[in-house]
Design brief:
The protein is built from no helices and nine strands. It is mostly beta strands and 139 residues long. The chain has a single domain (2-137), classed as Porin, CATH 2.40.160.20.
């Protein structure tokens, strides 16, 4: 299975954090597509993911680590090879490590481990994991 995701982020720094703090926060809104294609079948499956995720980040001007837990809707309800989600409504959690680069550190490149599941709220709950390379550019 593969996925492609496009999103927008909005960063914020609470008043209680100093300007030189290594901690920061941002919110992410994303839309993605999951693609499944089997060589032995002509059937192609696509699932659309929509998620909102608050993220906490720790790092300096070059390197960072981050984690986020948010809400996701996956339509149609995920089902593949006998595995299926119990609901269209799920959680999206991730951890990532990355770097900032460019003249004004306007670019980011990160490796992200992401997990989608309903957190055991409804069965079945097999979950789906992705490892992704994420590129972001600040405008």
């Amino acid at each position: 299975m593969r996925n492609a995701t496009f999103g927008v982020t909005h960063g914020y720094r609470p008043d209680w954090l100093s300007e030189d703090s290594r901690w920061s926060f941002y919110g992410e809104a994303a839309v993605g597509e999951w693609f499944i294609h089997r060589d032995d079948e002509s059937k192609r499956l696509n699932f659309t993911q929509i998620n909102l995720t608050p993220v906490v980040r720790f790092g300096d001007k070059r390197v960072f680590v981050e984690a986020g837990i948010g809400l996701a809707v996956i339509v149609p309800r995920f089902e593949d090879d006998g595995r299926r989600f119990g609901s269209k409504f799920n959680f999206d959690d991730h951890v990532a490590i990355g770097t900032r680069f460019g003249a004004a550190r306007e670019n980011e490149l990160a490796v992200r481990l992401e997990h989608f599941s309903n957190g055991g709220i409804r069965n079945p709950n097999p979950g789906q994991n992705f490892v992704s390379l994420r590129f972001a550019r600040r405008f």
